[in-house]
Amino acid sequence: MKKLLFFLLLTPISLFAQTDNIQDSIPGTSIILKNNEVIFSKVYESEFDKDILVEKLSVFISGISNLEYNFNTSNPYQLNGNLNGNTVNYRKYGGTLMGTNILLNYPIYANVVIQIKDNRYRVLVSNMNYKNVPNAMSHNNVDYLLDDLVTRKKRTSFRTASESIRVLEYIDRHLSDIFDLNVQNVIDDDF
Questions:
Q1: What pLDDT band is residue 20 in, cutting at 50, 70 and 90?
Q2: Across residues 127-135, what is the average pLDDT?
Q3: Of 16, 48, 68, 98, which residue is most buried, by most CB within 10 angstroms?
Q4: pTM (predicted TM-score)
Q5: What are the φ and ψ backbone dihedral angles of 162, each rounded to 5 degrees?
């Protein structure tokens, strides 16, 4: 009995924990590093069941600038889409032109998946990149993958520099706002 107890005490607790392959995250945001990729993953609560929520979301996201989407044919409760040039409004969140990373002045491109369940939906934004950004050194336009700019150690952790964290916080706040159906409902109900 003592040997069994001793063995259990030496066994790491992490063996029993569920792992989602989440390597790192930015505290206070919905930005995670999963499988060496920067992902915005946020679950929104709603008062609607999933059939009504599908209808409401399809109308709501059609108003999002530069978002192209379609329903998944194998799962009617999943929307797949692409952000094609949506610009982060960093000034709305307290950023200034000279005090914010220049990259945020350019539109962001990304893949979007919205998964719908009763009374909630999850938004996943991945493969975030910037296209045709002027490079002062080579005088050419360059494409930047956000993963390469804000991670380190072969994409196993986020950079700890305040500028990298601030860029991710602005992106998080922007994506949180544009995909929040509840904010839109409050505005419509009061009018």
A1: low
A2: 92
A3: 48
A4: 0.82
A5: -60, -35
